[in-house]
Write a structure and sequence with these properties.
- By secondary structure, the chain is an alpha+beta fold.
- The protein folds into four domains: about 10-15 and about 60-280, Aminopeptidase, CATH 3.40.630; about 295-405, Alpha Horseshoe (Serine Threonine Protein Phosphatase 5, Tetratricopeptide repeat), CATH 1.25.40.20; about 425-465, no CATH class; about 480-635, no CATH class.
- Helix content is about 45%, strand content about 10%.
- The chain has 26 helices and nine strands.
- Strand 4 (about 180-190), helix 8 and strand 5 form a beta-alpha-beta unit.
- The chain starts with 8 loop residues before the first strand and ends in a 6-residue tail after the last helix.
Length: about 650
């Protein structure tokens, strides 16, 4: 009808149909896999028989429709006007190189005028879990921030968001966020005249409907924001109003804050605790503290010197002593910046042990004050150290994060000294020890009584240095779960490879265990000897046994310790290990193979076979930050080629 206003047309489109075809969830595959596991796959229809119903249809009468997957989820996109956009957008997939990422675009159109846009990304987490941080860092700043702020390097929710007494927030989220695809909603923009009309809600719901049939399970994540360009500069009240409106909008859709982070999550499961949490009970950011403005400038000058690495410790201490009065009831002691950091927070985060000691000795209560992230000064220091351990931003590129966990070499002595002050525990000066001495001292299991206390301090300090959180790491970095995984692998490979020496001829053995594993640290001449000499192959395999013995005795599996273990075994005959080592064979070749196999069998970044076989034993061992840090542990043991 001429002159009649058209209805708002909501268009949801995928940039790449080919990615969808590869990645989308096929419910029939579940039944095929189940039948295959039961040995009944031969009873199914022939591939070419299109008259047969899929396996899932055979059980349709016994399966109820889930309320979380409404019928509209399967509607044809043309009903929402997608055809006019899909061809253009599909040809313009700027993320084409990322097979695990599917760009989803939402548009609301009325009379050819765009009223709202929504940009989202469906991230197939299982495809990238082995290198989650590295992969997520590349596409956009938002994917990078999500990866580093909320998840660990293997795409699992950081434990602090469900274990920490404060950072767990409302406590409705947990390790269930470790699994499933991720729907990252990056942008939602609605024209001012169409706000509070339900248009934003409708476009987000349409995107959720689009995603539901594409995946077995997913979580939607958003970090609510607002258009800062619409708020006059300096208008803090309007800014807070806009933030509150944004939070209210996402909460009205069922999103709830993850711990104390800036991220809000949504899951389809209506029985999940997040859906039972009222909006008014969700966690809000703490209010900003009001301080005497006349004190803020001197406070800023005092803390600025702490962050300049070239300013000597003594000069920093003098500056802080000048700023803080003798009376600890004075307001200057409790001053905090916009992030809630007190002077003790700043001293700790910048690893200034003399300043930390000065403040702590005079006002120990400051050690209990939490910043806006919920961190005490000790926790703020630990968070800063963890951030530096995990990733780093190159100079001049603050939005770029480079993963550095694999090359971690430990925290500085100044940082350890600060931790010692804040925990009131003795810390040893590791700079006075060589790495060999530190390793040897940490491995002593039957120490003389008069040395026990000193050795305990050294072990404790080594664990602080290398980020151990279980209090049991050998050498400070080899955790109980990592040790157990390596031990299982060493014993298994020794038994398996030794049997293969008899079962296969020399060419088969070379293919299965040398080319396949890509043995490193061996010269071409040694590889040729492995091919032609059974004694050399036996020596290589026996190295696995000595690595297992090191681990069983709670010793680090370094080349020196493995060689020492071999020297203790004077009964080996024929002397295949000595022959292997004297002819150029290395401990590293076998050790690297074991680390690679252990990583491949892990649940975090491999096939999960280790957990399937030894789940109960693993659960009985303490968890640690150093679990699954295969390359870091390998490097620390001297095997940098992993």
């Amino acid at each position: 009808m001429t002159g009649q206003k058209q209805a708002v047309d909501i268009c949801i489109s995928l940039r790449s149909s080919s990615k969808a075809a590869k990645n989308d969830y096929d419910p029939d595959s579940d039944w095929r896999n189940m039948l295959k596991a039961l040995g009944l796959d031969h009873m199914g229809p022939d591939r070419g028989d299109s008259s047969q119903e899929p396996a899932s249809a055979l059980l349709a009468n016994n399966v109820s429709t889930s309320p979380n997957f409404p019928a509209s989820a399967g509607e044809d996109d043309s009903e929402h006007g997608q055809d006019s956009f899909s061809d253009v957008l599909s040809a313009d997939d700027e993320f084409a190189e990322f097979e695990w990422l599917e760009q989803i675009d939402g548009r609301a159109i009325e009379d050819k005028k765009q009223l709202a846009v929504c940009s989202a990304k469906l991230i197939r987490r299982d495809h990238i879990k082995a290198g989650f941080w590295e992969e997520m860092e590349e596409p956009t700043q938002e994917t990078s921030q999500l990866a580093f702020e909320l998840f660990d390097r293997y795409g699992r929710l950081k434990p602090k968001f469900y274990e920490h007494e404060f950072k767990r927030g409302t406590g409705v989220w947990g390790s269930e966020l470790d699994d499933g695809d991720i729907l990252l909603i990056e942008v939602l923009c609605v024209a001012p005249e169409k706000r509070r009309t339900g248009l934003g809600t409708e476009i987000v719901q349409k995107i959720l409907e689009k995603v539901r049939p594409k995946t077995r399970r997913f979580i939607a994540l958003v970090s609510p924001g607002f258009l800062s360009s619409e708020v006059p500069e300096g208008d803090d009240d309007e800014k807070q109003h806009q933030i509150a409106a944004s939070l209210q909008f996402w909460r009205s859709l069922g999103f709830r804050r993850v711990g104390t982070s800036s991220w809000f999550a949504f899951v389809n499961d209506l029985d999940h605790p997040s859906h039972k949490l009222a909006i008014c009970d969700d966690l809000d950011d703490p209010p900003h503290m009001k301080h005497d403005s006349s004190l803020l400038e001197p406070f800023k000058e005092a803390i600025d010197c702490l962050s300049h690495l070239r300013v000597p410790q003594e000069q920093c201490l003098l500056k802080i002593q000048e700023f803080l009065p003798d009376d600890t009831d004075d307001a200057r002691w409790m001053l905090a910046d916009e992030s809630g950091h007190t002077v003790l927070h700043h001293a700790a985060m910048n690893s200034r042990p003399e300043v930390v000691n000065f403040i702590f000795c005079r006002c120990a209560d400051l050690a209990k004050v939490r910043n806006r992230e919920g961190n005490t000064p000790l926790e703020a220091l630990q968070a800063r150290l963890e951030s530096k351990r995990s990733a780093d931003s190159p100079a001049g590129l603050p939005n770029l994060s480079l993963v550095r966990s694999d090359n971690f070499t430990g925290f500085s002595q100044c940082s350890l000294a600060c931790i010692g002050v804040l925990t009131d525990k003795a810390v040893f000066d590791l700079d006075s020890l060589s790495s060999e001495d530190a390793s040897a001292l940490s491995a002593i299991t039957k120490e003389p009584a008069h040395l026990r206390d000193s050795l305990d301090v050294i072990r404790h300090t080594l664990r602080l240095k290398y980020g151990c959180t279980c209090g049991e790491c050998i050498g400070g970095f080899l955790s109980p779960r990592m040790k157990f995984a390596l031990l299982c692998q060493a014993e298994t490979q020794y038994e398996t490879l030794y049997q293969e020496l008899s079962a296969f001829d020399k060419s088969d053995w070379l293919f299965e265990n040398m080319l396949l594993c890509n043995l490193k640290c061996l010269t071409p001449a040694v590889k040729q000897s492995l091919k032609t000499s059974k004694s050399m192959r036996q020596g290589f395999v026996t190295i696995c046994k000595y690595i297992a013995e090191c681990l069983s005795r709670k010793k680090l599996p370094t080349a020196k310790n493995v060689r020492d273990m071999h020297q203790l075994n004077t009964s080996e005959w024929p002397p295949v290990t000595r022959n292997y080592l004297e002819r150029g064979g290395t401990v590293a070749a076998a050790a690297i193979m074991l680390f690679q196999f252990t990583r491949g069998d892990s649940a975090s970044c491999g096939n999960g076979q280790h957990e399937e076989m030894f789940g109960d034993e693993i659960q009985a061992l303490a968890k640690c930050r150093n679990d699954d840090e295969f390359k870091f542990v390998g490097n620390m043991c001297g095997f940098k080629e992993i």
